[in-house]
Amino acid sequence: MRYWPLFNDHDYHSNFFEVDLINLQSLLRGGNLTTIPAAQANEAAEVAVRTMKRILRNCQASSKDPFIALLKLKVSQHQSCLKTTGQRHEILDASSRQQAQTWLCRTQQLKQQRDKLKQYQKRINVQLEKDREVAKRLLQNGKREKAKLLLRKKKFQESLLEKTDNQLENIERLVHDLEFAQIEAQVIKGLDSGNKALKKMHELLSIEDVERIMDETEEAVEYQKEIDAILSDGLTAEDEEDVLRELDEITKMSLPSVPQAEDDLHLPDVPAEKLPETQKERKHKEAELAS
Predict the structure, then answer these.
(1) Most Cβ neighbours (<10 Å): which of 167, 256, 280, 284?
(2) DSSP state, 61?
């Protein structure tokens, strides 16, 4: 970046200085502002302002010099340009923070305006009823002109009420559109997250890997079928019976043994004599005989 020299009262030229001012303005106000660091742009503007102020102090002795007016104008322009440059960068930094609140603020403002319109409608409806009653009393008292004037006022308020209805309908539609746009934004954000997750899954397991796994599985199944076919063809029916018998023996050996009852188990004999009666049974029989 080119910086402007500190001119004294003898080594400046108006055309050269005017070209530098135009270049500085195009630099700070043109489309290349986003590609130039803010510190360099501010430093260039400060150097230009200091240069023009020094030339202005050196030229104030000759008050008839027409370049002084131009210099004053350029000093004020570049001071405002420097201030605007800083503000623009502050706005660019704050725009990212305000973007998240934009939808909420707009929706809230529209809802507040909607509520105000509804309150205004209620007031107009109450006033219309009052005007109608007043017009009736005026007609009863013979004041036709005043009643006519009041009815004109009532008609004007009704037209305002109709306009309010249209505005309220538009606001309701805008609120609905904004809320629906928020839902759409959330849906799009969700779809974007889903697409990113799918891409990551595809990176982990590509189509070629899936096809390779399926081919290997199919080959393993075919190989097992071939083994089963070879074994079944090489064995006779007797061999199959032997295989099943051996399988049953192995199964029985793997199960725990069940204890068997002894054949020579001695149990006590049943007594041949009649058992003595208990005291309870004796009392029961005596009671039956007594009855």
Answers:
(1) 167
(2) T
State the pLDDT at residue 131: 81
CA 64 distance to own-chain centroid = 66
* Range(s) of the domain holding residue 66: 14-191
pLDDT tops 60 at residue 13: no
User: Directed axis angle between helix 67-140 and helix 144-204, to 10°?
Assistant: 120
Q: What is the distance between the alpha carbons of residues 117 and 63, in angstroms, rounded to a whole number?
A: 62
The tally of domains found in the chain comes to 1
User: What's the CA angle centered on 282, arms 276 and 288, to 5 degrees?
Assistant: 140
Q: Can you list the pairs that 195-198 forms with residues at least 24 positions away whose Cβ atoms lie under 8 Å?
A: none
Rounded CA-CA distance 160/121 in Å is 9
Burial 244-262 (b: 16+ CB within 10 A, else e): eeeeeeeeeeeeeeeeeee
Q: How far apart are the first and last CA of the chain?
A: 139
Most confident of 49-58, 149-158, 200-209: 149-158
pLDDT tens sequence across 18-58:
444 444 444 444 434 334 444 555 565 566 556 656 655 65
Tokens of 141: 């008292």
User: What does the block give as tokens for 158?
Assistant: 């009704």
Domain contains 44: yes
175 assigned to some structural domain: yes
What pTM value is reported for the model?
0.31
Residue 181 lies in a domain: yes
**Cα 139 to chain centroid, rounded:** 63
Phi/psi of residue 31, each to 5°?
Answer: -75, -10
Domain contains 24: yes
How does DSSP classify residue 268? P
Residue with tokens 């623009």: 88
What's the rounded Cα separation, in Å, for the pair 16 and 55? Answer: 14
Return the top range by mean pLDDT from 10-24, 32-46, 220-234: 220-234
Q: What is the CA radius of gyration of the chain?
A: 53
